[in-house]
Amino acid sequence: MEIIIDIFGITLSRGFVTFLIAMLIVFILMIWAAKVMDSEKDYRITSLTAGIIDALFMFVYDLVAGIVGEELVEEFMPLGLSLFFTLLFANTLSLIGLQEAVTDLVVPFVLVVMLFIAWTIYALVKVGIIGYWKGLVGDNIATYALSPLELLGRFTSPFSMAFRIFGNILSGFIIMNVIWIVIGMLFTSGSIILIIIGVAVQIASAALIAYFSVFSPVIQALVFTSLALSNFKALLEEE
Distance of CA 64 to CAs 96, 106, 118, 206, 216, Å? Predict the structure, then answer.
């Protein structure tokens, strides 16, 4: 892990810095989007910018509503919006030379620990300590024996989410780096034929760049957000 900042005993890696930048971008964009929509008379869409914002909002709205239900969609929309777009920016800022945030294992692990604490507190507030405890051990002797497995599942679920997004994004990062190394070797080989092959590989790699730097981060942000929301919903359903 490469350290780029070391001040007052605080060290930050490139991936974590990218994540902080993504959070700042999303925060600014949310404020800007709110002002744009507020400027629309009676919230009627009259500009292209407002139309794009509305389309993105409805995309996340449908995602959240499909997981937690219409009755809880307003409650979970802030989480859905912030989580999806933060992860999206955190892993697409590589297009301007920054490191993908989740290729730094600290980032997804910190994120899932925060989510685990959040959905545990949420469940405790909604159903109480007794209700949460019954969700772990059940309400009869037969289910008591399975309580250790249930407890283990609740602790391991967020970490499986972290490994999932870390592995998927990191694999793309590794593949693209291998391709660039091969292209560099072809260009420095001194052989005209190999240089021509290098040019062809570089052109062909444009599709891979589009996939690993844009399409894959969108899918991973979508999957991670869906899993996070599903955990909140599952806790309530169990109780």
Answer: 30, 26, 17, 33, 20
